[in-house]
Structure formats: C-alpha cells, structure tokens
Amino acid sequence: SLVETLQHKIDCNKDGRLLRALHFQAAELLDEKLEQLSDAAEHLRQILETAPDDGDALDMLASIYVREKRYGELVDVLDRRAQLTTAPAERDTLLYQAAHVTQHETLDLNDAVARYRRILDVNPSHIESRAALWALARGEDCRLPALDALEPLLRLAQEWKPLCECLALRLSVVDVPALRLDVLADIAQVEEAALEDRAAAFATWARALGEDASSEEARVALERLAGNTGNFAGLAEVYEERLKAVYDSELQLKLASRLAELYERTLSRPERAVELWRDVESLPGGESVALSRQE
Predict the structure, then answer these.
(1) How far is CA 207 from the centre of its chain?
(2) Residue 186 CB-density burial (10 A; 0-12 exposed, 13-18 middle, 19+ buried)
C-alpha cells in the first residue's frame, strides 16, 4: 500500500527536509483518505521531535485532536502554538482557545480561570477572557477563583460599578462575619468615594449594621452620612430595626438612647422620645444615662 511505501522511504531516509515531507504525506493520507487519525498524529509527532516549532505540524495535530476529542493533548498543542507566535492577537486567540477547552472539555475550572487571568495580565481588554471570567463569577461552580481574578483588574481600571457587582458576588460566598463586614465596607466606600452615591453607601452600611449591630465602623459611617445628607429619618429607621432585633442589653441601651436623642432633638417626635427614654431607664445602666441627660 501507499502508506507502507511511504513508511519504507521514511525508514531508509535520513535527510531532514525529505523526512518532513514524507511524514506530512503519510499523515495527510492517513487522515484524509483512510481516517486513521491516531496513526496520522504519530507521523506529525515524529516531525515535532526534530522540529518542535513546526507550525504546520502543530496545526494539523490540533485538528486531529479536536476530532478525536483528545482535549488534554489539544491544550498542550495550543500552548505550544501560542509560545511560537510573535503576533499578540494570534497569541491571545490561541491562549483563549486553550482556556476555553480547559473549561468546557477537560472541566478543570481552576486551571481555566488561571489561564484567562494570564491572558488578561498581558491584555486587560481581552473581551472573551473577561466574559468567560464573568460567566464563571456569576455561576456557582468556580465563583471565588473567578472573582479573585476579576477584582484586581477592575480596581486597576477603576471600573467601579462592575467592581461593586464583583464584591456583591463575593459576599454571597463569604460566611465569616468579620470578612462579610470587610466586604460590605469595601462596597460602601466604593459607592461613596468613587461613584458618589451616598444613598447607596448608606444602604450598604445599614446592611452591615444589620449583620453586626455592634459594628462601630458601620455606626460611625451611618452617623456621618446622615449628617452630610440630612437623612436622620433614615438613620432612625435603621436604628429602630436594629433595636427590635438585638437582645444584648448594652447594645439596646446604646441604640435606644441614640434614638431618643434623634427623636427629641432632630426629628421633633417627643412622644417617641419619651417612650424610648423610659425603655432606657429600664435597662441595666440606663438610669445613669437618663440622669446624665437631665443634668
């Protein structure tokens, strides 16, 4: 057969150029005519043993691996092609293809995230890699690694609204109370300082106080924002909600006395202020607070 004839010529020949041509001829025959893809791939690998940077051999080998669904080996070939090219756009395309195959075929999501991240380290505007990371971040299977890849990119580019979404997604996978407060504080600071959205920042700090009524950072921020915007009614509403939810007498005392002051001095609701001062007096240590107010 022609394949056997070609193999005999290969075995008897030592000229590099001729060997390459014979291996290619055999690979094309086995691939296109005989559909013996594994044997065709072996001839291409023989070329690459002596010429690892042979782009034609790598391209043909990649095509065979796609059809054979040999995805791990396909990724290796795409990586090699990316290393060989000097064109940035072509390199990004090849690396993205390798990352896409890693994500969807070999199902190694952590490695896929790392691959997308390496593309963006060099080319932060690579649209496909960004979209892939966002899809993973919004999904459930690999959210945290994807967020870890996206967050520094968004901060560096000062993309504040997407950063807030990124942080909100991070909040959905963080369980430790102290870490949750850190994330909420981060969101609120971006909303206030970068987006200049004090209402959103106030709502986020209110959420933080809702998660930990003892958070001094959240309380101070709420007081400051209420003072800057005049939203003392909103502040009172937040404190009322917290007062209903807490059982610690020290926190109850702090919230009730501050609420009473707000209603008495700022919001002109003396009846509610009187009710709260009565509550304050009934709490441990409340009598001294009430007496100091009268002095």
Answers:
(1) 22
(2) middle
Is residue 19 within 8 A of residue 13, CB to CB? The reply is yes
Closest CA to 219 of 201, 237, 233, 206: 206
Confidence (pTM): 0.84
Alpha carbon distance 131, 249 (integer Å): 49
Q: Is 112 exposed, middle or buried (0-12, 13-18, 19+ CB in 10 A)?
A: buried
**Closest-CA residue to 90 (of 98, 134, 102):** 98
Burial of residue 290 (CB within 10 Å: 0-12, 13-18, 19+) is: middle
Give the separation between CA 128 and CA 98, rounded to whole angstroms. Answer: 12
pLDDT digits (tens, 9 = 90+) for 129-174: 999 999 999 999 999 999 999 999 999 999 999 999 999 999 999 9
Tens digits of residue pLDDT in 232-274? 999 999 999 999 999 999 999 999 999 999 999 999 999 999 9
Q: Could you tell me the end-to-end alpha-carbon distance of the chain, in angstroms, rounded to an integer?
A: 111
Q: How far is CA 205 from the centre of its chain?
A: 23
Nearest Cα to Cα of residue 205 among 187, 178, 179: 187
DSSP string, 138-167: HSSSSHHHHHHHHHHHHHHTT-HHHHHHHH
